[in-house]
Amino acid sequence: METLMVILVGILVSIGTYLILSKQLLRIVLGISIVGHAVNLLIITSGGLKTGSAPLLGEKAAGFTDAIPQALVLTAIVINFAVTAVVLVLCYRAYQSFGTDDMEQLRGDEHE
Amino acid sequence: MTIFYTFIFLPLISAMLVPLLYKYLNRRVHTGWFVLLVPLSIFIYLLQYIPGVAAGNTYKYTLSWIPSLDMNFTSYVDGLSLLFGLLISGIGTLVIIYSIFYMSKVREALHSFYVYLLMFMGAMLGLVFSDHLLVLYGFWELTSVSSFLLISYWYERKSSRQGALKAMLITVLGGFGMLAGFIMLIMMADTYSIREMIANLDVIQGHTLFIPAMLCVLLGAFTKSAQFPFGIWLPDAMEAPTPVSSYLHSATMVKAGIYLVARMTPLFGGSSVWFWLVAGIGLVTLLYGSLTALRQTDLKAMLAYSTISQLGLIMCLLGIGSLAIYFGPGDSGTVFTVATFAALFHLFNHSTFKGSLFMVVGIIDHETGRRDIRYLGGLMQVMPITFTIALIGGLSMAGLPPFNGFLSKEMFFAAVNDVSQSGIFGLSNIGILFPIIAWVASIFTFVYCLIFVFKTFGGTYRPEKLTRKVHEAPWGMLFSPAILALLVILIFFFPNVLGKYILTPALTAILPTMPISPYDLKISPWHGPNMELLMTIGVIVIGFLLFKTMKRWIQVLRNYPQGLTLNHWYNQGLSGTEKLSASLTNRYMTGSLRHYLIYIFSFFVIVLLSSLLLQHGIQFDTSNDAVISIFDAGLVLGMVIAALTVLLAGNRIMAIAALGALGYMVSMFFVIFRAPDLALTQMVVETVTTVLFLLCFYHLPKLEKRIERVPFKLTNLIISIAMGLTVTLLALSANGHKLFEPISSFFENAYELAGAKNIVNAILVDFRGFDTMLEISVLAIAGLGVYVLVHQRSKRREQRETE
User: Which portions of chain B are predicted below pLDDT 50?
Assistant: First the structure.
């Protein structure tokens, strides 16, 4: 299962990177989102999968899955959301101000 | 904190009060009067150490800073540091009195001026009293910074800014060298303390890093003390207000290099490399400085080059004096101990006469508006007191009796004569060069001193060439140089008081192993008719003849081609470096985000893959893997399809929907992986994100199917596949190496420790509560950012509509 997940993460990273490298702003935002998902999955995978029950003490289970990656990912999800929101609004503003969403046209002047 | 540290840090602490004093009281009282109390009280405080230190005691103080890293401000008050401490606070007092009358309280930004000056004073005191090498280095750089700020004090002038930059570049370059040298010393001796290094001399002297460390430390000392060829920054530093030139750039800061060489003499002294570098460079600097000073027409520039040459003289004496360690106790050793003593004596004398001369130039500049000897002359009749001071300072520098410069110059001649006869380190062949160069340089020194005094004050008075009505300076400006001039004469008549109480203890600190008898160190003006006296008479006769015939030869010197000066090479080097780095930077800083991302991704791939390969880290171990159910496989397939849909979607709504689907599938994975909190959070966040996307996409242009060039697509494809591959390999190898036991068992007593049954929640809000709090602040900042970006837009639109 871990190996499969890692391969899935690799595919997601590839697709995300490809999108980030494209010229259109919206695609870049989509790419960032996908890479974010991939990283979250990677972190959760690194703690070992399906090794015990959910980390709730009330369950009286024999063993729990590793809680640390979960705590990390929980933080990451929220921060990801904040980043996506800001980048999206930034794209919107850039498009409103400059009338283009092409990165090649948005680049700075040669001698600034 | 002991009283000692209160006084050492007094300048830095009181610097904080200066802006307030300036703001509320400057209209009534010149801020300088308050600042004056600082060096004066430090001076008085340090005076009380003299009896103890003269009796051979040293005082140790320690101020804990980072004890766990062995970083403490350890101080030793010994003769050497006390000599410098007294110079810093004593000359500082006089300079501040002088500055009160020199700096107008109406026109000048006094608050910055005195803050910088106090900052320098504090840094310099810290430097000389610090025994910890890294702390010393910190103060050393702080003196460079404050010197930079003071040189650029009149920052609206281009020449001030350039001079400041030059001083900064050269001294900080040396500072870095010195830091490297210090680190080598620390590695060799395994201690930060200079005293402990001196105690462990054998370990250091036998080490392979001995010579490299010495070279690096000397680089720092030579750049700071303006030795050849690094001295070019000092003339340009004269753009600073004259009190600064007099204080930093003649009496104290430039002597920090001398201090360092003196401090390091017990470590490095006795080796031939040290002798040749210190004495040799010092001698070359002496000649170069005095010759270049001759052709200056600006009084301040002349004094700057003369400072360079005098610093060379002191450096040379220290180099010669280091031979005492080579010879050890005995007759030859004593001869060179006297040379070190002469170095300290001249250091003190130079501070007195050069300080007064700089202040005289300041007075001339202030009263006449000119500093160029071609326009000045005959000022003797309008400024008699200033003339007297200049005469005393100038003749002392020239080495004439009855002034203190005569005594130390005689001792210098004696030292170069001794070294030429010592016959070691290859001196038997070229040792004779020492007295010859010293003698020639002294003639030049004599001539420029005469030029300085008599071209300004002698000759005919030409008021038509001056912009102002000239009169004698106010008493406040004359006070400080007069005190210094008085010292110049007093030291000539009573040199042994100074020698006994101040210089001999300092000598003990430089040459701790040498027996020092007061009889050898007795300074007297008359030694009978000997070689030194003949040399001095020669200097006076030839120097006087040269001065009289000046018109015939001075043009030859002044027409020295500009292209061959050190300054020219410095400028060429600087502009060349700038051009090179600009063209290099422009080649890769293209302004295109995509290029920067490509650098980042390539770096990531190259560094991680190569280190994985080099460390043989690629290792797979699938034995501990969990089983894959059909449901899992279906989800994985679904996610790949969703991601591909995002990639290939022809319109926006489809891409966004696919992204949403991807997110929900991630949350399903969280359910499978026994992470209910994550699943819930992911579900909520994904919903909000999708809504946000849908809100924004309305305003964004359509996804266009653009026909891109093949190389563009190919680059992207290669990089993205490499990225995916790297991440996969890295994660697989990480899975294959289980190097540590998981620490999660620690959190399983969450209920006992935090009263929470949900471990993940306990980690977030209790164990790592701070992280979560900061995370919430990140969210708040992001929210503010979004709000501002949207709101600003609508406001502008409103404005446009009203127009």
Answer: none
